[in-house]
Amino acid sequence: MSKFCKVYSWFETLRDTILRKTPDCSSGRTGYFLFPIIPNDLLCKLYRGTPRTGIKNKVFLISTFFISSIFPFHLDNQEIYSLAKRGENIKRTDITNFFRPVKQLFGQENIVTDPLKLQKAAKLALKYFRENKRSNPKIVKPKVFDKKILNSNKVEKTLKFIIWSIENDKKRKRGFRILDPKFLNKNFKFIKWSGDTKAAYKNNVKIPENFWNWGILDKGKIRLTKYAIFTFNGSYKKTAKYCCPLYKIIDKNFAKKDRFRYTKQDVLNGVLQKPQNRKKVKPLVWLTRAGMEDAIMQGTVLVRMPNKKELLFNVDKSNGIAYNKKVKDIKRQKRYWYFKQVKRDKASMKNSILNHGGAVFAGDIYNIGLGKIIAIKYKNPVNKKEEIRLGVLNDVGGAFVNNLYQLDLFAGVFRNRCSFNRWIRKIPNAVQAYILVKS
User: pTM value?
Assistant: First the structure.
């Protein structure tokens, strides 16, 4: 284990005694917020041997490790319909208060996006866009956003231009113009997104960098969380260690009715192993309790088997219980997902979100709509340079119902949380955000 991983592990065992837990209603996490009573020499001891960040604010040291539990969500038809239905029943604020056109001119910022991943994400968004235009128009053309802020035709035009420009540069074997701020200024108009700070405050959202402002989200910015897909060890059979299965539904009647009867706790207590249910579901793989909880929260999981094969599983159908933002302990969440195995052949993986790490955002697509090209602008906490990251709004989740103050950046696939934390430490927890529109 690397020195970084050892220090991080040490930090996790100590943090509950030196940090105060604060509720984080918008993402389902339990946040950790440092009080100034912790002396600086203790912080130095905690982080001795870790890579230097050059961060002067001692409190901000914590933010590089802030998200130790990540709960990603992946676009799923059942989930989309559920969110759309819930969205119709929720009293919403006027979204025009948070989006306005600006004459934003980027300067000398470094654009850190991988153009090829951005192109793949844009192609996938265009595919989703066309598939859902008739079957589920609410996520393609949100009524207010489409009429008052940005119509879907311009979104489609922007996606096509992004795909074309990257493909053109690839064929000509020249530098990618999408990485040039001047190219963005010339070819796009900008819609500034200012987060719903009142909703963030109501949900007790804390931004670690803003410690001296009690963690309140700054006006004009949005909150940025990060998520990933992790690789877990698993077993084909139940063992003392791998005692929690991911179930697949194999009975049509169970899929239509019975799956709504059971909570996650019912499943863990063996209700699916009773005679009346035993032939209606099938264990796909066995994980540890922690692995099962992460799989349910992440939606997609990569499992290493004893014979060194890696199997990919994705959520299929839920028990219909919504994620409860007020419940901080994930073991107490009643929501449960049944899974399906995903083929890992070239055809299936071509359009997989796994290939788009760093270029995909999850957000409130019921309000904003699928397929928006978003630029986030921030100062890198490590090298102190101004950076821009481009991504596509391609993902969604229960935490984003009526959430206009947050995006979740998909970081990619990671073997462990240590490597994930090394990746996210370069990106702050609050950023400026702009929707790009082809001019």
Answer: 0.73
